[in-house]
Amino acid sequence: VNALSHYTDWTIGHVHSGALGWVAMISIGSIYALIPWLYGKKEMHSVGLVNTHFWLATIGTVLYIASMWVAGISQGLMWRAVNDDGTLTYTFVESLKATYPYYVVRMIGGLVFLSGMFLMAYNVFKTMSSPAASGNTAAQPA
User: Are 123 and 56 in contact (CB under 8 A)?
Assistant: First the structure.
């Protein structure tokens, strides 16, 4: 697998599956859990926006990483293809042209993920700026 995927976009997809699919999702979930508690609220301003953000982040991540995995495998196969005389079958530019549609899907996935982050920023701002629920006080420092 390493011989095929090394130096290709497959590696980018692999790294972003961890960065977006694990690290970002855990961080986002932590923020959604902590903000109401820190500001003395029962829950986020809009639970519906939290759910929408989850699905935008999930769909964006899947589009992003799947497109990079497919682009990387395509690159690896094209870069390994040789003619009978030992020359490369495809030029580097041809491999770039072949992966262009995957970059468009990658951009769409990134924009979908980013749109979810904008929803989160709005929801966090509204949660922090709304008055605390009666009888529920904000967290106090130890």
Answer: no
Residue-wise burial string across 37-64, b where 16 or more C-beta atoms lie within 10 A, e elsewhere: eebbbeebbeeebbebbbebbbebbbbb
Q: Are 71 and 102 in contact (CB under 8 A)?
A: yes
How many Å apart are CA 99 and CA 72, to the nearest integer? 8
Assess contact for 63 and 55: CB atoms under 8 A: no
Q: Which amino acid is at 15?
A: V
**Which residues pair with residue 82 across a beta bridge?**
88
pTM attached to this predicted model: 0.87
Contact, 59 vs 114, CB < 8 A? Answer: no
CA distances (Å), origin 115, targets 24, 36, 128, 132 = 14, 22, 20, 27
Q: Scanning the structure block, which residue is given the tokens 């109401």? A: 36
Going by C-alpha positions, the residue among 26, 20, 49 that lies closest to residue 110 is 20
* pLDDT single digits (tens) 8-22: 999 999 999 999 999
Q: Is residue 113 a contact partner of residue 105, using CB atoms and an 8 Å limit?
A: no
